Here is the input.
Amino acid sequence: MAKQDLLDNMTQELRRGTLVMIVLINLKDKEYGYSLISKLNDSGVEIEQNTLYPLLRRLEKQELLTSSWDTTESRPRKYYQISPLGEEVLESILTEWQHTNQRINDMLL
Amino acid sequence: MKILEQYLYAIKRKLPKKGSDEVIMELRSLLMDNIENTYGDNPSEKDVKSIISEFGPPSNVAKEYGGNIYIIAPEFTDIYKMIIKIVVACLFGAFVIAFAVQLIAGTGDGNIALQGLKVLSNTFTASISSIGMITLIFMIISRYVDGDELDIAKDWTPDDLPELPEDNEKVSMAESIAAIVFTTLAIILFNAFPQVIEGFIEFVENTGVDWGHTLVIDRLFSYIRILSIIWVIEICYSILTLIYGRITKPIRAIHLITLAANFFITLIMFRDASLYVGEMNLFGFRGILMITLIFGPIDFLSNLAKMLKPSSR
Here is the structure.
């Protein structure tokens, strides 16, 4: 496998591993699908729409997010926001993330 | 926008019915946001097509929303494949034996090559039906049984490791597999191809050797039906020895029950005058039953002794 392909695969796996955490962090305030994509893109996180939207539904099924339809605007929009359970899980994941970062940094010394 | 509605309709057709309306509503909102933010309030059909193309084919989008829908759950795939292999092998074996008996008895159509080809075509046809039925059963199981519930490896700890088998518990895998295959063959042959058995009996009669008696076919088949039940239990015993890799006391108890049942049915057949036409001597079929009646108890007692032997653990 060419080096670039290998690098692309590994980068994609790394992003995939952090995606749930990134989504939960960015849903402390209510967002709808497109606004979340724009917010993530502005933060430098590129994610395909066909990956994000099914992920939002899965996280909602897992009760990490809540959703509500807003029908007051020009078209109905489904808004997502992190749930109390989601916040608990996010806190634990962030702690784990920091530990992992620390361990990696220690290995590099 | 017509093209957008066409796209959403194509996606909806591929979604599971439950929840599809909400998924489409969300997708419509999403796509419209995309279109307006990229091309403004009056997009052309070309603009809409460009956004739709980025989203991808309806089947791919539907798959992302519908999740992985397996016809047969991954947890059941290994056992499904194993059962298919056993069934196809048994069907082939049954047709080969039927062909061989027809050849010996001379009851076939005449053209040996054609009859041989029929073995293959019959195996193929019967296999298709069997695979279809087995697949249907596994589809139903996958639909209603959570594969995780059957995942015995899920909560494994070293404490779950079984003891090493003692000498009297050891089992030969080859013997167990052979027992499963040949017993299954016997069940299929005796129950699905009665004409082969009849042909074989006719062949024996036509050899000219005077065995003193012949068999009443209907009576014989009534015993075969009872014996088939015992043979099915024997197959379960062999499968259990394969799963556990040893003959535990409960498994040996099952074997003892089938040995005892076999012995009693054999004894009844030996003494049943209505099974025979002619002299009830000790030759021919009755002779075979006699040998079974002599060695059956020896096998039973040997297994009983192994079961009662105290464990050295």
